[in-house]
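ok so heres the complex, two chains, lmk if somethin looks off
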Amino acid sequence: MAEERIDVRKTYKMYIGGNFPRTESGRTYKALDSEGNLLANACQGSRKDFRDAVKIARGAFDGWSSRSAYNRGQILYRIAEMLEDRRDQFMKELGPIGFTTAEAEADINAAIDRLIYYAGWTDKYQQVFGSVNPVASSHFNFSMLEPTGVVAAFAPENSPLLGLVSVIAPIIAGGNTCIVLASEEYPLPAISFAEVLNSSDVPGGVVNILTGFREELAEHFSSHMDVNAMCYTDDLPKEMKKTIDENASLNVKRIVKRPVDDWYDEEAQSPYFVTDFQETKTTWHPVGF
Amino acid sequence: MSHTETKEAAYKPTSPNSKLDFQSVWEYAPAPQDADFAEVKEQYDLFIGGKFVEPSKGRYFKSTNPATEEEITEFAEATQKDVDKAVKAARKAYEGEWSSMSGKERGKYLYRIARMLQERAREFAVLESMDGGKPIRESRDVDIPLVAAYFFYYAGWADKLEYAFPGKKPEPYGVCGQIIPWNFPLLMLAWKIAPALATGNTVVLKPAETTSLTALKFAELVKDCGLPDGVINIVTGAGQTGSEIVNHKDIDKVAFTGSTNVGKIIQKSLAGTDKKYTLELGGKGALVIFEDAPIDQAVEGIINAIYFNQGHVCCAGSRLLVQEGVADKVIQKLKDRLETMIVGDPLDKNTDIGAINSKEQFETVNKYLEMGVDEGADIYQAKCDIPENGYFIRPTLFTNVSQSNRVVQEEIFGPVLTVQTFRTADEGIEKANNTPYGLANGVWTDKGSKIFKMGSKMRSGVVWANTYNKFDPTSPFGGYKESGVGREGGMHGLAAYIKN
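and the predicted structre for the whole thing:
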């Protein structure tokens, strides 16, 4: 009689700088399925993990923001291709945490299409939102958008794949790099999505994904002096919001709050999610012989 | 061999007369691009309603390789009945699946086309060079990558049109008739088809009769992509076929790229109808070189402006206007640079200038060469060897020309540059603008403010500053005056396919 095969389970670690390290703190917490059974131990990321990730995201910024818009578009499209290819993996991931088969399929479809939507924006938002300004003096004057820099984000709590993708895509489409805290209760799809990123052509450090607790990390996300913007889409507790807003004033961090109820809605995708993380630069140049 | 030694002895790292003397130092060994893997059928039919169909009159015409004068394949001649069939297929597709499909899904088909073109890029590059005579380096590094890029760019617009047209509900025209030239066969196809499909139109496209091969290979690719039948229809033939498309009652919009003469005929034949049209026509671009320009960079720019693609470029910089103080220096450097150019086998990776596209065009350019000399100009041609067979012309300069010479006034569409001088910026502008054309101009100077001043004064749809012949899907392209109406490329290029 053949021996019953014991399956090999995946270790879920974080995603920093194109690698999958464990948290330096050595702490984990339990990621459970919808019936309360253990799915895996997730890393409980620390302040130090976040600080490491910021350093890496800053290092990746110059290269990523210097990529041509066309190239960034190709890479976002590549992520979509890879996600399409790994549908089954995400079906398995979403099922145990309460998605019906139809819901999981819809979630994955929408996530893929959202990546393609933003792939298309990379070389278009500049044309739509940039301008040539008819100043009265003899100058050629134009305004263009440039990425804000390093963005820290809380991914939505209740949309562990589609919501996560919807937050990351517009940030990186515009040439920023980011550190994203995955859904606290459902952290595993985010780490599997990191595997998708890692097998696309996204350079290491452009997207960094941590798992852990908002309560602990909100303070650090918002107070870090080398983070240029912070974004969240959930309705956070009042106290946490206040902390984030106050800390932002330390280095004039841009705080982007975009409350989204339904990630399937067309309203949940927009070029304004891209321009939220852009700065306008205006150049003056004389005209004359 | 003993002469190798003498060559080595003669080698000097920097030559006192500034000549770019490469050939006495080393010779270029042949570097042929493998072409066997690119499959060409003996005969190609018309692509209508998602199927390859025989032409109703059963007539085919031959296509030759202009570098060898050998026959490559033959194409079907589409007559009135075939064009009608193609328009009907396009109408059916428009009224069926295509116009009810969301922009998001339409875009996905265009992304598929872009991706598959990238995958098969080398094959298309080889076929483009075989059929049209352009150097493989250009078809491989310029034409085909841009083709994929245009599809990729417009794919992204399909679900974002409301952002391109604020305050307007963007709607397609319906069925577009598109006629393209032979100088950039597949690239012109991409310029036409990508924005038309992104905006929800369907098309009937006619490639030029001398360069239909890649369009039909593209049709095969379209089938592989699973695009709904009839969204893209490709009919082959000469001017008569084009005229059938333009004059067909059920065409909503005509897009034409080609000569100004034919453009005018099309504009006239559309008179009194409600059909919309965009025309990308000829040009006679000026290259204005100021005394403060970086001269070596300018010389490279001139070479690229006029000798790129054998000068078969509607926006070619075919009139050099050089400021007097540097004229002798620029002309000397240009002549030296011409001597380094390699004219020959389009499929050799070292080739700079390939074959003139067709016998007809070969004769036209030669006619202009004679005409220039008859008008009293001084002709200078590179002394390079050219192959015995095929249609090759050495890169040519005409100096001692005046504004009224026909070689200065008319579009030659070959590797022929005229050289004039100017003293003041105003004189430069006046000479640059003294043409019925207005497609593109170039300016070389190290002074930024002069670039913008020249840019604002030159009457052309494109101005290249310290560079030339640059193309990108995000950048609008098109002419002033008799160089055409409408723009292709960029967000502006969408407008050509949206009801106004």
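quick notes: The CA atoms of residues 39 and 123 of chain B lie 8 Å apart. thats all i got rn
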